[in-house]
Structure formats: structure tokens, C-alpha cells
């Protein structure tokens, strides 16, 4: 039996309240018919006996207290799914906005997902090549991992997201079993158009599923956007056997929408006004990454968030760091100096990279090289601090070599073009070339066998290039 509830008890922001509702369920979807015959959708977000609070997706403007008809649909919000979803663009609530018509679904899935049994999870091991040296060598992204990017307002995280989506490759994956799900939350119109145009021009749009929630869209859709995106990712990964990379930006916009929604429900606020359940809410999104035993596919997440005032202790980056397996931190000083991508090496890490690199995955020297680059760059920071106190002229010869190494490291290794796609071998070889500018006795994180094989080769190559550069061109000859 289908029942329509006529009238609304109360309207508060994006919420409406109904009394005497029978057999309602939490998260159940409802249809709301207005006086003029137009339809809106909502979902039940709070229940107190027979009183229910409904969140209206399109907002409550124009809703009548007397004549509005509300119908409970008996199921949670669902996302239509089929293989033809690849290459499509949706709004934040999963409705097509690319002009190509509706999806004809093979199935519908609850956007809240189903928990993955921890016993059935497979430990992530294989790596994803992004073509970006700092990420691939120093904080390697592992398939099935969740590795966030901590950025700041106005920095180039959007460009970095597009570059990763364009260049990402998984070993043993091809165009038929690799896909990207891209979710933008609270994006401005020009930013959303930039994402769409960039994917289209680079030719990767056919393997991308895009969800665009704009800054002028209702905040309710912003809360749904990552859930719709992850539902699609799980379908592609665990039912179609694809390897899926999910990029979500900006998680701070999502958290602020959650704060506004929580406030409208009258919930007691926590730190900086965010709801006390922000941690568990973020975990319900991030923990949908991984690999499942018996399934070929995988879901890897790169959430991007902007830190208000570049404060890493802000609740959103703070809680994200607890849930995820590392972080990539962008540095404003590097960004201001024109270095792209402005990855701050020392506070960045990938906790799972140790099991997905080395012989059989990347190369035998990867782990030792990574450790040595970290150690050398840490000494660069110490030398710079000392130089700011006593002056660069008073530094020891070794400290001066570290200063030179640090300059080269930032200009040649951290810095690379937006369209520059480096293979893992190129990134590793470049790392050895930079280490060759330091004395061998300073490389205490690498064993002699690897030094003999890689360091000496890079040293000889540097010396050869130096000799060529020092030889003046013969008179009358073109150099």
C-alpha cells in the first residue's frame, strides 16, 4: 500500500519534519510533490518515534506547510549501475549532466555501500605509477591504498589531480581494466569546466566517471557526492574486475557541508563546530578503499583536502591522517617559488610503500635510494637553518655540498612539468644522479653493493658531462 503524507509539520533550512509517519526507515528515500506538481527528492536523516526529519536535496524553497505531499519509497538512495557508466558526467546526486541521457541500469546499489569483512581484505602490495618522481619514489602510491593530498587554498592541487588522473598506470593493467572515478565537491564553475576540459583534451575521459558538485549546488548533494562516486568505484572494481583510482576533491568542502547540515539538525558541535561523528563519517568513506579476496579489481583513493590557514592540526586533515595510510603534503613556499608540483618531501609519507617496492615491483635499489634521498634532504634543511644563523660562507665544505644538492633536488627532482610523465626507471636514475653530487662517505643509508652498481655509474656520468661542458669549442667549428 502506497501512502502520501499531506502537509509538513515544520521547515528548518533544508530539513522538513513530518509527524505520525508509519514504518519509516533511516536513510529511506522520499518523493516530495509540490503545489505546482514538481517533484523533489529527500531522505530520512532522523527519527524520533513517529516523527521523522527529512533532508530535501533541492532545498525547501517553495514547499507548502499545508499541501505538500510526501511519499516514502521504501529503500535507501541508490545509484544506477552498468558498464556504460564509463565516460559519463554526473551531478553530485548521481544524475547525468552530460546531455547523453539516463543510464539504463543492470542493477542499483545503495550509495552507503556494504562493509568489507576485514578477513576478506588483501594486503595492498603492487604500486601505481603516477609519472611524478616525488610520489613514485619517495611516497609510492600502492594499489588499494588511501593516500590523501594535504594542500592549501590557492595551491596547484587541481592541476596535480588532473595530472595524476591523466598519467596513472597500474602494472599489469590495460585500458580495458583501469578506470578513474573523479568526484569534485564544492567546485566553482570554472574549476569544474577545467576538470572536464582537461580530461576530454587528454583523451582519458572515456575511462573516467565524473561527479561534479558545484559551489552553488545544495550542500545536501555535497554529502552524497563521495558516496555515489565510491558506489560506482566498487561496482567497477568488484563486479567488473577493474582497477579503479578514486580522486576526491575537496574533502574540506565535504566536511563543511556536514558541519552545516549537523548544525541545522541542532546537534551538539565538536572541535571548530564540526560534528562529533566527523571521524566515523570520514572513515565510512576512506575505508571503502582496498582489495577483496576472490575479486580481481581494486579501489585506490586519493582524497584531496585544503587545510584552512595551512594548519595541519585542523580537524579535517588531523582526522584524515589518523584514518589513511600516509599523506602527500604540498608546501606553499615551494609553490610561491614556482616549483610544480610543490610536494613537501619531509612531512610526506606512504606507510604501505615498503611492501610494494623493490625487486619484482619497481627496482631493487628503490627502498635504499628513497631512504637516502630523505636523509640527504633532511641534512639540507639543517644546513639551511645553520646558514641563516652564521651565514653561508662560514659553513663547512660538506654543508655547502648539501646546499647545492638541495637546490638541485628541488629544481630537477621535485620540479617537473605539468605534461612531463617520468617512468619509475627515469625517476630512480635521476635520484642517483643527484646523490652523485655528494661524497660517497655521506651515503650511509645504502649498502656498498648498490653504491658500486648505481652510485659509481652516476658519478662517472656526471664527470663525463662535466668534461664535455669544460671543453671549449674549436675555433671556427660549431660546438
UniProtKB/TrEMBL annotation:
Carries keyword Transport?
yes
InterPro entries, alphabetized: ATP-synt_VA_C, ATPase_F1/V1/A1_a/bsu_N, ATPase_F1/V1/A1_a/bsu_nucl-bd, P-loop_NTPase, V-ATPase_su_B/beta
Please list which residues make up the signal peptide.
none
CDD domains reported in the protein's UniProt record: ATP-synt_V_A-type_beta_C (cd18112), ATP-synt_V_A-type_beta_N (cd18118), V_A-ATPase_B (cd01135)
In this chain the ATPase F1/V1/A1 complex alpha/beta subunit nucleotide-binding domain maps to 131-350
> What sequence ranges are listed for the domain ATP synthase A/B type C-terminal?
355-455
Q: Which SUPFAM superfamilies match?
A: P-loop containing nucleoside triphosphate hydrolases
Q: Which Pfam families match?
A: ATP-synt_ab, ATP-synt_ab_N, ATP-synt_VA_C
Keywords attached to this Swiss-Prot or TrEMBL record, sorted alphabetically, are: ATP synthesis, Hydrogen ion transport, Ion transport, Transport
Residue limits of the ATPase F1/V1/A1 complex alpha/beta subunit N-terminal domain?
9-65
Q: What does this protein do?
A: Produces ATP from ADP in the presence of a proton gradient across the membrane. The V-type beta chain is a regulatory subunit.
Q: Which NCBIfam families match?
A: PRK04196.1
Similarity section: Belongs to the ATPase alpha/beta chains family.
Q: What is this protein called?
A: V-type ATP synthase beta chain
Query: What is the originating organism of this protein?
Result: Anaeromassilibacillus senegalensis
